[in-house]
Design a protein that fits this description.
The complex is a heterodimer of chains A (454) and B (513). Chain A has 15 helices and 22 strands. Chain A is α+β, with helices and mostly antiparallel strands and 454 residues long. In chain A, strands 14, 15, 16, 17, 18, 19, 20, 21 and 22 form a nine-stranded antiparallel sheet that branches. Chain A has a five-stranded antiparallel sheet with strand order 7-8-12-10-11. Chain A has a four-stranded mixed sheet with strand order 1-4-6-5, covered by helices on one side. In chain A, helix 9 packs antiparallel against helix 12 and helix 12 runs antiparallel to helix 13. Chain B has 17 helices and 18 strands. The two termini of chain B are 28 Å apart. Chain B is α+β, with helices and mostly antiparallel strands. Classes of the chains: A alpha+beta (454), B alpha+beta (513).
Chain lengths: 454, 513
Amino acid sequence: MGTGTPGATPSGTVPAELAAACADVRAAGHADQIAGVPARYVAAPGSTDEASALLRAAAGLGLTLVPRGSGRRQHWGNPPTSCDLIVDTGRLDKVVEHAAGDLIVTAQAGVPLPDLSQVLAAARQHLAIGPRTMVEGGTVGGLVATNAADSWRYRYGAPRDLLIGITVVRADGVIARSGGKVVKNVAGYDLGKLFAGSYGTLGLITEATFRLHPLPGAALGLGVQQKDAESAAAMVQTIQYSPVAPSSIDLRWPSPAAPIWLLVGLEGDRESVLTRAARLRALVGPALLPGAQPDGANVHEPESAAPAHRTEDQLRADLQSRALDEGTLVRVAFWVGRLAQVLTAIQGAAATNGIDVAIEGSAGAGVLEARAPASSAPMAVAAFVTDLRAALSGLGAGSVVPGVASAVVVYAPDEVRNVTDMWGPVPSRDLMRAVKDQFDPEHRMAPGRFAGGI
Amino acid sequence: MDGNDVIGNDGLSTVGRSAPASVIRDAAGVDAAFTAMMTEICSPDSVITDPQELRTYECDGLTAHRSTPGLVVLPQTAEQVAAIVRACAARRIPFVARGSGTGLSGGALPRTDGVLIVMSKMRSIIAIDPASRRAIVEPGVTNLSVSKAAEQHGLFYAPDPSSQVVCSVGGNVAENSGGAHCLKHGFTVHHVTGLQVVTPDGELTWLGDGTGAAPGYDLVGAFTGSEGTLGIVTKIIVKLTPIPEAVTTLLAAFTTMGAGGAAVSAIIGSGILPGAIEMMDALAIEAAEAAVNCRYPEGAGAVLIVELDGPTGDVEAQTAAVREICTAEGAYEIRAAQDAAERAAIWTGRKSAFAAVGRISPAYIVQDGVVPRTALESVLDRISALSAETGIRVANVFHAGDGNLHPLVLFDDRRPGEQERAEQLSGTILDLCIEHGGSITGEHGVGVDKSRYMPKMFSAADLDTMQLLRCAFDPHGICNPGKVFPTPRLCGEVPGVRRAPHPLVASGLIDQF
């Protein structure tokens, strides 16, 4: 497939079939590579119909292809095994419909997330994916394809939970829609669920419709310092069962020697946020350190709940001062009741292999990210991942459920990736392969990028 | 998933449609030998063959569609379900899973040439993990019993379809059930994090791991709401939610539907997200009064039920705000329930509404369309105009917060032609929903009842693409066939796609250019 296909032309010459199908096609330049895999052509369709014609032409030529948005998350997952054509969504940049009264938005895949946030904020609404993800850049298509989320996962879930409709172009060029633009809708299969987090392996996402939420009047972050994994886990239990209805329960543990911080996010109107903050303080006691500022944390004075807008501005400022996606990031998903064991497993595997990891994520939702610095020895990082997976698989022993935790390497330097199984064991892999075979029988869509060798 | 689907393909809607399939089938459907096999897998008293008894399973909650199953089996374990399905798969016998039979779209309508697998004996709550806020349950467990079992831990199971006392969690997964409170708390798909399923070829496997963030495709999300067409669930991991500290239920009476609708828009527009916003029109209120004597305010053209939940302070503030909005929009009476008994009194009328219209009409059709909330007013106006034009009465009961209409189309089936006219009106209401960018079903499912409307909402390519998922799970089309999709094509009939060399090419008998 892919390389050396009958449709191949000398490098630098765009096949006539592609040029006829799409107004914006060119030969790939040096920057046009996906996770280090150079492409031959780049095409930027300006509409779903144009994308359809392009993918049909690519199918005729037997080209492998990888969708690309802003490139924000392009280094996530495995590199594709082949990439003849990059389908750039840059010209699919329209917010198609923002029905504020219905709390929904339809946007094309190439719309940058910060731009989308701006449009929605004008109506005092937001796509509740998580403050960091929305301001870090990336596009609507990339957001859905990676199902990325952060703090607000605790309350709102991931993109798959807010996605209510999707338009895709299949590998054979056929345009398909599922869902719609109403939140409550059970007509037909929900293909959006399948495409959320599919890393471009099932088709090209060209348009997505999301459920929106009103932007809260005020937001407040409260920090709780904990001395070890057990006390942090106990505190998460206290907070999740408390009546203060937090939007997020994040955890930050910058290094084994440092204290663990729990950051509780409250949202609502100002009055409510302040009342709930006082109640939380009464519940948590002296452990709650109002206004404390752990490294990079988004913590505000409880006496002055900040307008939600200001919180985002601060996040943006924070982000400018720090490099994105350095080193190796391992996402650990687990049953929340196992938090203490999971923290111990992560630090144990890191210590065994002599690396330092920083842990951060939504303790409340059971999704943490362990980051090994870029300076770590690649073999040590690879061994860390293996050891961590072994420790996590032990946590499920005795349960009727096959496992209660998983570890996925989201991104890693080449030297680590070359020696690491990025996705690890995957439940029901045969069914996933059957799904892939149906949607993309020739395996031309982002081949090899995904879990289970898909 | 055996890769032989090019040769051994059955029709999706009619078994035995393609000739080669009947050649490879090893026996003719549900016969004595097959029944004996079922008895061996389950105990004899778990296999029903008596024609009288079989007839009790001829329909689900949608009684308009009836079909007596060829055989009924009531397995007690996941392994038994797998063995039953394997036996069906070997003979290409279609099978249909059934939970409590409360579905409203005929999704569990049996096949006369097939097996009905009734899950009601699998009703144990296997485990509750309060620290992880998860429960593992069997599919026959009733929806409400999950909340009851979780209550001692301060937790509840959020999806609450109105049939929650009897409906099963397995059925909820099949239908992606909602309920009055899904406006705030979401649907079944937002509360299921792992499924043990028997695939249509009889393999027992897990989708997801209960975390809600398992690596790979989100097959849990894709399976939920697939109306029993992708396999049978045998264990379900659900998310549990902390019981809110405070709940207040308000009942507001308006003289017109327009005023009630305006209040709904104003509440949502103010940034408040209530647990539920329900609305009933005068005819629905009249029916509820006749049936359960719910004593709603006299002379109401519309009543609104608004339920707010959350931390005490927030609920108090929002209650005051909602009162103010309703008054401003013309509410002439507002009642507030503070305790469970008062709350139940307010909900009695709403919850009885479907059954209650039986008091004011010999027969009726329950519809389940969805429109964008902002289109509610114009759609309701159109419905009332249509009702006036046709002389067919329509009672409106709906989840106003999310635009989910449940028009009850009333008719007298003793009058010639009236049922046809009622069905026509009911269909026109769905057309209206589609016209306004809505959906033909918000929570009842497509089943057999609405499959003919699917082409109005989706293109042939959309439906074909959904079939790709179906073919990945059920290449032989034996798992609840004939539901959801109007004219499913055979798996393997993928236009323009080369799947494998033609058998004759592979064998060297012919060449292909």
